[in-house]
Design goal:
Length: 224
Amino acid sequence: MLSTANDKVSFARMLAELGDLLHADRGETIYHPGTPSTSVFLVETGRVKLAYLDESGKKLTLSILNEGEIFGEMCLVGEKFRRHLATAIEDTVLRCITKKAFSDAVGCDMEALQHLLRHFARRLREYEETLEDLAFRDIQARLSRQLLKLSDEYGVATTEGILIGFPVTHKELADMIGSARENTTLALNRFEREGILDKSRYRIVIKNEAGLRLKMQEPGRVAL
């Protein structure tokens, strides 16, 4: 099962007017592993990427967050220092809300608490899907699933096919599926030869969604 845009949980209305507004340029780090975990962020406009960063500098993208979504919420359940890297992937406006202010806003509101539980459940499902991919799917299957997810959440219908609606590099795709850039490029080139997609610099158009779904389901040896 793919996590889709339809079950994303928006906090925009609930957290309106709380906290302070911050601006982050495209590519700017919002926080990095080891930063004190004392606040929750709401994406007002733009997009944010959450990634795991290991000691060697290798990244694994965990989530891409849109307007209305929160991140940094693990401070609410005891996290003292950030475990992930948060980066703006386009010019972004954030609302920074202290742990106390967020807790006060939702603590006495049953509907707000249920909202937060749905958010945690979705985030857990996303991470479980990522773990399943890394453990049991090869690069082509992982790439297919990621492209289908991006198409579902950000796809724009064009005469050519479904355009992924924001610029994405081969390295960024590689980080999303836990692969090397070179291997990801090889898989993209194969998909292009087979007529599944068209690609150019920062631009991917999916021409054959059914072909991607077949690639995702094909049994294969895990290859990192």
